[in-house]
From TrEMBL:
An example molecular function term from Gene Ontology annotations: protein O-acetylglucosaminyltransferase activity
Residue intervals passing through the bilayer: none
Gene Ontology biological process terms in this record: protein O-linked glycosylation
InterPro entries noted in UniProt: OGT, TPR-like_helical_dom_sf, TPR_rpt
TPR repeat positions: 55-88, 89-122, 123-156, 157-190, 191-224, 225-258, 259-292, 293-326, 327-360
SUPFAM superfamilies named among the record's database cross-references: TPR-like
Signal sequence interval, chain numbering: 1-25
Keyword terms of this UniProt record: Lipoprotein, Signal, TPR repeat
Species this chain originates from: Bradyrhizobium erythrophlei
Protein's name in the database: Lipoprotein NlpI, contains TPR repeats
Length: 477
């Protein structure tokens, strides 16, 4: 959820009220929320105030309740504020913010609409309405509102930050980073903007820049749990699972209810081969968020690695129920069916996975592999037109289409980037092993699977698949 602006509504009336009643002045100034509630209540109950003045006190007490996290009392006070002064744009804005925090985005948007109708130059209301649209997944309307916010208030770092997040959600990382850059220029102490830019850099595959941004976010705000979480994910992608786990530990310490942190720490333990600790973390992630499909999927992988395909499939079933459009979960379940010997079910699942992501070269490969296990012809000749054949794993695709040899694929896996080379060599060996297996060359397949099991990064699907294939061949990995 994007940060939503609340504001003590006192600027219009503070001077007049302060001049007349000094005892009420504390209600007009942001302070300790408990003290503000007492002062505002005294003013409300005094009977001295009517109309817009009474509305101001209700609105300010609502802001204090909001600071305490008491959204129900905040909304009740804002209802009271609106009754004597239905043209109080700030009260509609603040009530919208409370509804937004309660997850009622439709009522929030209705209130922001009214605030904007009353005051068409109310930049904060446009910004907050953009946040509500963003929370509903309507990033185009969110961006339109952030554009309007920036037009009205071109120095609003938060508006640039939020617009960047909307672009990020749309997958436009370059425009997102441009907006985060501007947010940071306007507010160099915004930990959130550095955190968000780090996330966009990570999504572009630049984990070093991501880590640098997360470092700065943490320096600015050592209690910023999301920055530790993001940095942990970046370390994980670099294969540094120990540093990743250290960051996830800190994220959990700062936010012990973060299902995402437990889920990601579980994945780091899984990548280290510690499936029992991984499963314990996935269990906690699911307890905290029973609708987190990723955690069920990840726990399924851990059970699969332990050879418990029945429990793995049960988890994949739940992940698919929660997210029926996830190609990754259909692929994972299909693979478990394959290793359990249910090749027809495996083919149905990998076909479904590929249908959700027809441009994914790896899914196309698995459709070919499982089709051959079902004594059906491969389909890469038909599906390769949807795949980018200028980048890896195009050589593997050509191998399965009899256009390259295993030796040529292994040579093509070479790369000056050692991490990239390691992954590509892993895949060259594994998929060459799969092709050998479909041709009945079990000894060669065993040799290649052993290489993959030995050398593949544990975070790669091919690593645990190689181990599963070796077990199916009756060979100790």
């Amino acid at each position: 959820m994007s940060p939503t602006d609340w504001r003590f509504w006192s600027a219009l009336f503070a001077a007049m009220i302060f001049l007349s009643y000094s005892a009420a002045a504390d209600c007009d100034t942001p302070q300790d929320p408990g003290a503000a509630i007492i002062d505002c209540t005294q003013s409300i109950n005094s009977g001295k105030w009517k109309g817009r003045y009474l509305a101001a006190y209700y609105s300010n007490r609502a802001a204090a309740y909001h600071e305490q996290g008491d959204l129900d009392h905040a909304i009740a006070d804002l209802n009271e504020a609106i009754q004597p002064d239905p043209k109080l744009a700030m009260a509609f804005n603040n009530r919208g913010a409370a509804y937004n925090e309660q997850g009622d985005n439709d009522r929030a948007i209705a209130d922001y609409n009214e605030a904007i109708r009353i005051d068409p130059k109310f930049a904060m209301a446009f910004s907050n309405r953009g946040n509500a649209y963003s929370d509903k997944g309507d990033n185009d309307r969110a961006i339109a509102d952030y554009n309007q916010t920036i037009r009205l208030d071109p120095k609003s770092a938060m508006a640039f930050d939020n617009r960047g997040s909307a672009y990020h959600d749309k997958g436009d990382n370059d425009r997102a980073i441009a907006d985060y850059n501007e947010a940071i220029r306007l507010d160099p102490k915004s930990a959130m903007a550095f955190d968000n830019r780090g996330s966009a850099c990570h999504d572009k595959g630049d984990n070093d820049r991501a880590i640098a941004d997360y470092n700065e976010a943490i320096r600015l705000d050592p209690k910023h749990a999301m920055a530790f979480l993001g940095r942990g994910i970046a370390f994980s992608y670099k294969g540094d699972n120990d540093r990743a786990i250290a960051d996830f530990n800190e994220a959990i310490r700062l936010d012990p209810k973060s299902a995402m942190a437990f889920d990601n720490r579980g994945s780091a333990y899984h990548d280290k081969g510690d499936n029992d600790r991984a499963i314990a973390d996935y269990n906690e992630a699911i307890r905290l968020d029973p609708e987190r499909a990723k955690a069920f999927n990840h726990r399924g992988y851990a059970y699969s690695d332990k050879g418990d395909n029945d429990r793995a499939i049960a988890d994949y079933n739940e992940a698919i129920r929660l997210n029926p459009n996830s190609s990754l979960v259909y692929f994972a379940r299909g693979r478990s069916y394959l290793f359990a010997g249910s090749v027809e079910k495996a083919l149905a699942d990998v076909n479904q996975a590929s249908a959700h992501a027809p441009e994914n070269a790896y899914l196309a490969l698995w459709v070919d592999i499982v089709s051959r296990r079902n004594n059906l012809p491969g389909r890469l000749a038909q599906t390769s037109s949807r795949i980018d054949m200028t980048v890896w794993p195009a050589p593997v695709i050509r191998l399965f289409m009899d256009q390259m040899t295993p030796a040529a694929v292994l040579a093509a896996a070479d790369d000056p980037d050692a991490t990239k080379k390691k992954g590509q060599v892993c895949e060259a060996n594994f998929y060459s092993g799969e092709l050998s297996l479909t041709k009945g060359l079990k000894d060669e397949a065993t040799r290649l699977f052993r290489l993959a099991a030995s050398d593949c990064p544990h975070s790669f699907n091919e690593w645990d698949a190689a181990n599963a294939e070796l077990k199916a061949l009756g060979v100790v990995p």
